[in-house]
Amino acid sequence: MATYQALQLQIQQLQAQAQEVRKKELASVIAEIKQKIIDYGLSLSDLGLTKTKPSRAGAKAPQPPKYKNPRTGQTWSGRGKPPHWIAGKSKEKFLI
């Protein structure tokens, strides 16, 4: 049975061999991929490699404030999570 150190040395040697084989194969793999892109007329977006994200459809514009805290002057449009000063209270008394 091999020792731990012997196995670690073998791992390092195999990793070095794998890097050498990768370097030798890389140029031919890239050339093959380029040729397939040309043959099939592929674009970056076809491959999912575009840098721009599609815009969010339906993004809502900011709404004017609907509620106001009389003590601090803070406002809330009524959208999203209610602020702590209005949560659990009657919203009618905070209407603007």
List the helices and strands and how they pair.
Blueprint lengths: L3 H37 L26 E2 L6 E2 L20
Antiparallel strand pairs: 1-2
User: Tally of extended strands?
Assistant: 2
Please work out how many helical segments DSSP would assign: 1
Helical residue percent? 25-40%
- Percentage of residues in strands: under 5%
User: What is the approximate shape?
Assistant: elongated
Reported for the largest beta sheet, the result is:
2 strands, antiparallel
Mean pLDDT across the residues is 88
* Neighbour order of strands in the largest sheet: 1-2
Description of the structure:
By secondary structure, this protein is mainly alpha-helical. It is built from 1 helix and 2 strands, in the order αββ. The chain has one helix spanning 4-40, and strands at 67-68, 75-76. A two-stranded antiparallel ribbon has the order 1-2. A hairpin with a 6-residue loop joins strand 1 and strand 2. The mean pLDDT is 88.
What's a concise summary of this model?
This protein has 96 residues and is mostly helical. The chain contains one helix and two strands.
Relevant terms:
single chain, 96 residues, mainly alpha, two-stranded antiparallel sheet, 1 helix, 2 strands, elongated
